[in-house]
């Protein structure tokens, strides 16, 4: 193992209690999707990615595998490959042999998982320098170990951009443009609009893994915030909202019930929903328009034959 370095920016942990109480004071009630990913939720998410109905992960992996050398040709060698929200660092492994970056820079808010995942990459690619940065990727971050003028490629796979409201997605993309800097680029995975039946199936797998993933939010409230949700009395509901171009996930109260969270009581009517996630879908042109507004110039798009998923290579617009 050559260079493995860990940089801790000491990101502030999200305040689960405060965000639940805030979200429950609105109508419809909501829970931000970032809270899906505790230990249990992260394993459930990995299981979702293996479901036959959930096409995004395997389609994106096939695109990365099939086009790694084309991607590397656009990205160039010896750049700094930055991955905000790197998670288990699984997909980047498909790029590293072709891209041969000067260094890989995984960034994540979960320091413990980041350290393990990044160290594994460093072990697997002994020639590679790895600088892991524990930070909140929605905040500006300085990366002083990147030499001035070095080319930066930002890698943001998984269509996580779909969780943002379009206006927020533009803001976040502008932040990624800032992270890539002049002369830099972004490689991003974006789920495509398609037959609503395929979309709906992807979020309603037959094994019920997505339902368990959704309901885990309530179990998490029970475990961590002394809640008493009867998780059997809430239903997973996921559907495609055509007008807004997004999958919506909700938890629906199957009866009138009262839930207490750390001693505070919340009434739920029969049929009342808690909104837990939006997952926006984009056509190639929708996404190009959004990326241009954020300061990018589209360079290339790869899609699978059925046009289920897209992988965009965009360079930072340097005019002006
Ligand atoms: C991680 C946000 C891309 O929207 O498809 C999967 C999360 N939710 N199944 C998605 C998710 C339910 C996933 N993203």
Question: What brief labels describe this structure?
Answer:
single chain; eight-stranded mixed sheet; about 35% helix; about 25% strand; globular; binds N,N,N-trimethyl-histidine
Overview of the structural elements:
By secondary structure, this protein is of the alpha/beta class. The chain has 9 helices and 14 strands. The chain has helices at about 15-25, 40-50, 55-75, 95-100, 110-125, 165-180, 195-200, 210-225, 285-295, and strands spanning about 5-10, 30, 80-85, 105-110, 130-135, 150-155, 185-190, 235-240, 245-255, 255-260, 265-270, 275-280, 295-305, 310-315. The strands form 3 sheets. It has an 8-stranded mixed β-sheet with strand order 1-5-4-3-6-7-14-13, sandwiched between helices. Strands 2-12-9-8 form a 4-stranded mixed β-sheet. A two-stranded antiparallel ribbon has the order 10-11. Helix 6 links the parallel strand 6 (about 150-155) and strand 7. The N and C termini lie far apart (about 40 Å). It binds N,N,N-trimethyl-histidine. The site of N,N,N-trimethyl-histidine (AVJ) has 11 residues, from strand 12.
Helix share, percent = 25-40%
Indicate the proportion of strand residues: 25-35%
Bound small molecules, deduplicated: N,N,N-trimethyl-histidine
Count of helix runs: 9
Please sum up the structure shown.
With 320 residues, this protein is of the alpha/beta class. It has helices at 16-24, 39-48, 55-75, 96-99, 111-124, 166-180, 196-202, 209-225, 284-293, and strands at 4-8, 29-30, 80-84, 103-108, 129-134, 152-156, 185-191, 234-241, 246-253, 257-261, 264-268, 273-280, 296-303, 309-316. The protein starts with a strand and ends with a strand.
